[in-house]
Design a protein that fits this description.
single chain; alpha+beta; Endonuclease, Chain A; 5 helices; 13% strand; elongated
């Protein structure tokens, strides 16, 4: 989703937008939040909203540039917490390792907010993005084994190879499950 607005996005926000686009994560930039409890402002704008996961993302690009910016960020974070708004916070130093930082913080925030449906969707998305090809190979090998015109006596090598492909892809699926669904 390309961002088009009069307000120019910072380089960090543009980088995060490109990351979401590359990862095929749908987002809404500058999502407005109205009437938050105990807030001195009439509304706030989150840098990003991920509607599929019901998660906000804030980039604190000027975190260490001034005391005033730091104060504003702390106030916004406090308001989000008071209003139980699920949010992933990213800082300039996270951009170099954005995939790691965003993924770990997203999983942690979804767990903390007990958003189990969104957590499952996010973990499944990670599994598919990381191991997506295994589903194709698994399907093809099983299809050939089940529906192929195999002569069990004459095609032992072919059947062995297809069975090995199925076993390996099932191992990769199990390993991906352990990696992406059993995070602590």
């Amino acid at each position: 989703m390309k961002y088009q607005n009069k307000k120019e996005r910072s380089e960090g926000e543009q980088f995060i937008s490109e990351y979401f686009e590359d990862e095929r994560i749908r987002y809404i930039p500058e999502k407005k939040l109205n009437t938050l409890k105990n807030d001195s402002k009439t509304y706030r704008k989150a840098d990003f909203y991920l509607p599929h996961y019901k998660m906000y993302v804030e980039f604190y690009g000027q975190w260490n540039q001034s005391k005033e910016a730091n104060r504003r960020y702390r106030e916004k974070k406090k308001i989000y917490k008071l209003n139980n708004i699920p949010c992933v916070y990213l800082y300039p130093e996270n951009l170099g390792i954005i995939d790691y930082s965003f993924t770990k913080r997203m999983v942690k925030e979804l767990k903390n907010k007990n958003m189990l449906n969104q957590l499952f969707k996010f973990r499944l998305r990670i599994l598919i993005m990381d191991r997506g090809g295994l589903f194709l190979w698994l399907f093809l090998a099983l299809f050939i084994l089940v529906f192929g015109d195999n002569q069990w006596e004459d095609d032992k090598n072919t059947i062995f190879i297809l069975a090995a492909v199925v076993a390996y892809q099932l191992y990769r699926l199990f390993d991906g499950y352990l990696k992406f669904f059993k995070w602590k």
